[in-house]
Structures are given as C-alpha cells and as structure tokens.
Amino acid sequence: xxxxxxxxxxxxxxxxxxxxxxxxxxxxxxxxxxxxxxxxxxxxxxxxxxxxxxxxxxxxxxxxxxxxxxxxxxxxxxxxxxxxxxxxxxxxxxxxxxxxxxxxxxxxxxxxxxxxxxxxxxxxxxxxxxxxxxxxxxxxxxxxxxxxxxxxxx
Length: 154
Description:
Blueprint: H1 26-44, H2 50-62, E1 65-66, H3 67-73, H4 78-90, E2 94-98, E3 106-110, H5 112-133, H6 138-153
Antiparallel strand pairs: 1-3, 2-3
C-alpha cells in the first residue's frame, strides 16, 4: 500500500489505514521545536531558567502582583511558581510582601536588581524568539503563532 504524504509529512489519503508514526505526532513535533527553542534560550540567557525569566518578564509587564496571580499569568501551578519565586528571592531579583488586606497572600515585585536584570535581558529574549522563528517567513510566523495560540487556549 502506498501512503501519500502532504507537505507536512502527514497522511493525505483518507482511504488508507491510520498509521501511527511518532515523527508525525503533534506532541513529538512540539517537543522537538521546544528543545530547539530551549537550546537557543540557554545560549543567550544562561543565568536564568525559562520559568524564572517568564516570571521576571511578566512582573516587568504588570508590576507587583500576588504570587498566585503571577503563577496564572505565566501558566505555572502554585507549587511551581512558589519554587521559582523562592529562587528569584534568594538571588535578590524579587521582593515579597504580605498583601495589604489578606495576610495569607504574598505580593511579588521586582527588586531594583531584578528590574535591571530583566531590562538587560529583554533584547536577548527578542533575539531568542527571532532565532527560534528564523526558518519561517514572516507570513508563516504570523500564521504559526496564531495557530499555536489557538492550540494553547483549546
């Protein structure tokens, strides 16, 4: 049996039996693309992990916010964001204060050192995105990012 492939390597003929090939699965392809992106990130931004960078970048965007809200904004669960914030605080990149009206909540903000750090890294982060997307044309990039956002939101 001959299996025709479309431009993405996916089966194009609906009359053929479904064949599972790992290299054609969305999760596998996304993981490979993510591995490539992480290698580019590590080469340019070596002293922060991607989750640490995301937390600092989001704090730079929105200002002080609760630890829980920050976790939601950067797509991390409560335990993960707590660990990220603890490590950033240990490096004096963020400050923690009790919430004004709810002492159980913590407000996270950038320290002066954290603000300097993230502002110095933002140009590198733009280059990481540009290098990650370099194999695509501008039109493909726009389509890819739109479709990826659609997948992420479900």
